[in-house]
Design a protein that fits this description.
Elements: E1 7-11, H1 16-23, E2 27-31, H2 34-38, E3 46-50, H3 56-65, E4 71-74, E5 86-89, H4 91-119, E6 125-128, H5 135-147, E7 155-159, H6 167-175, E8 181-182, E9 193-197, E10 213-216, E11 228-231, H7 238-248, H8 255-268, H9 278-287, H10 293-300, H11 306-317, E12 319-322, E13 325-333, H12 338-346, E14 354-361, E15 365-372, H13 379-387, E16 391-395, E17 399-405, H14 406-413, H15 418-434
Parallel strand pairs: 1-2, 1-3, 3-4, 4-5, 6-7, 6-9, 7-8, 9-10, 10-11, 13-14
Antiparallel strand pairs: 12-13, 14-15, 15-17, 16-17
Helix pairs in contact: 4-7, 5-7, 5-8, 6-10, 7-8, 8-9
The structure holds manganese (II) ion.
Manganese (II) ion binds next to loops.
Length: 442
């Protein structure tokens, strides 16, 4: 196909930098008056008018002489009612936004350099995730491995929890062939360095050895030391932070890695609907063309095993609504994912602002999963305030979780029967939700 020859007509005082940029795209004719502009022969792809020269009359005469030719007024502010065929474009602002982006990436590249130094001498490192690794944490681990130019022999990805059960997460691990190790706390001493992703040391309690790196988007919890610490609560996903690192360091991003990261951002932000900020959207847009969308669909379609459907029905049977809060007692479960699934369901009920699903996992822990509509107080902060002294609790603005041992629950409410737990959880949330929001509206 023959390339179309672009011809640009510039009217007014343009600086040579801008003219130079356009001369790379086609022929540039540069004039300093309307008269000269009307004296040209042939057609133009675009007529550029410097804003000091712009008047509606000028554009009228130009469009009579060069019909069907779009016009751009450059360097000026948009006039209140521009003529229909005229666009106002501030090229310098466009360029300065690009330059600001590059500056940011260059600064991030320095951070990546620090991160690499922290793990440079480790023969075998561990990338440790929370006990129930989700797509965001798993994708972040793959990204960190790529950034540090390591492989599964030199960087183990592991967690201390039980086998992964949520069907989508199982599908992600299988379809992307991710090697995720179940470790015991005693295994941690076998590694020369440890990086925590999507989680922070206090989550693991005092037995956790000193870690070297912490990268997370949850609020800072407790105080701890790490040689490299990156806590960015404004991001909707740890995958967003790692995507920035990959871009800044110009690390190759494989299709598998892009697919994982895209899925990580998608799930943590419910497809940019929850807790997403402009960086998440930018990372998403950047990863989208690099990812394998067919594979992603297969991961997302991972269906609930038929054997679980009964538990779904049973779980939903025990629900109630109080003060626009949807409660569901999932009861005793072997697989934790049923609880957040029910919380996700509850927030879709009409008129509901909060959804609280809870159940007892493996006869030892009460798990409470919380969702809200996003414009009420922060779910993460609310569960922290309610349960931080008796268990681990935290999360984001519109999704949060608490894990409390049944022993602790019994200390508070006696025998800890289902009925007692239901009453306790209902009252705690009703009180906390109705209290006035914090000063910053969170
Ligand atoms: Mn996350």
């Amino acid at each position: 196909m023959q390339k179309e020859l672009r011809r640009y007509l510039f009217i007014g005082d343009f600086d040579s930098f801008l003219l130079g940029l356009f001369s790379k795209r086609g022929e540039v004719i540069w004039v300093s008056s309307l008269e000269e502009a009307l004296n040209q022969t042939g057609n133009f792809s675009i007529i550029m008018i410097e804003s000091m020269y712009f008047t509606p009359e000028l554009t009228k005469e130009l469009s009579a002489h060069y019909p069907q030719t779009p016009m751009i007024v450059s360097n000026g502010e948009q006039k209140e009612e521009p003529p229909p065929s005229v666009r106002f474009v501030a090229f310098h602002k466009l360029l300065s936004e690009e330059i600001a982006r590059e500056e940011k990436l260059a600064r991030t590249d320095l951070r990546v350099d620090e991160l690499r130094k922290v793990h440079a001498n480790a023969k075998k490192m561990l990338i440790l995730l929370h006990d129930h690794p989700d797509p965001d944490s798993i994708a972040s681990a793959l990204a960190l491995r790529a950034i540090l130019k390591r492989n599964k022999q030199t960087a183990t990805i592991g967690h201390l929890g039980d086998k992964i059960s949520r069907p989508e997460n199982v599908a992600m691990i299988e379809l992307l062939e991710i090697d995720l190790q179940e470790l015991g706390i005693e295994d941690l001493k076998d590694f020369d360095s440890i990086a925590l992703l999507d989680v922070q040391p206090p989550f693991f309690g005092p037995e956790l050895p000193q870690v070297d790196t912490v990268i997370d988007h949850h609020p800072l919890v407790g105080s701890y030391e790490a040689r490299f610490k990156e806590i960015r609560t404004e991001e909707g996903a740890t995958s967003t932070i790692l995507t920035k690192y990959l871009r800044a360091s110009q690390t190759d991003i494989s299709e598998r890695l892009a697919t994982a990261l895209l899925y990580g951002i998608k799930t943590d932000t419910v497809t940019l609907n929850r807790d997403a900020d402009p960086d998440d959207i930018e990372a998403f847009t950047f990863l989208y063309p690099l990812a394998n969308l067919g594979l992603l669909r297969r991961i997302e379609r991972a269906e609930v095993p038929p054997s679980e459907i009964k538990s779904f029905g049973q779980a939903l049977a025990d629900h109630w609504i109080a003060d626009q809060i949807f409660f569901v007692n999932v009861g005793r479960v072997e697989r934790e994912y049923l609880i957040p699934k029910m919380a996700d369901f509850g927030i879709q009920v009409k008129g509901i602002e909060w959804s609280v699903a809870f159940g007892i996992l493996a006869n030892t822990h009460l798990i409470i999963s919380v969702r809200n509509v996003g414009y009420v107080k922060s779910a993460g902060r609310l569960v922290r305030e309610l349960f931080k002294d008796i268990g681990s609790a935290g999360g984001h603005r519109s999704a949060a979780k608490a894990v409390i041992s049944l022993k602790k629950v019994r200390k508070i409410i006696g025998k800890g029967s289902q009925e007692e737990i239901k009453k306790w959880v209902t009252e705690e949330f009703r009180k906390a939700v109705s209290e006035k929001p914090d000063e910053d509206g969170q």
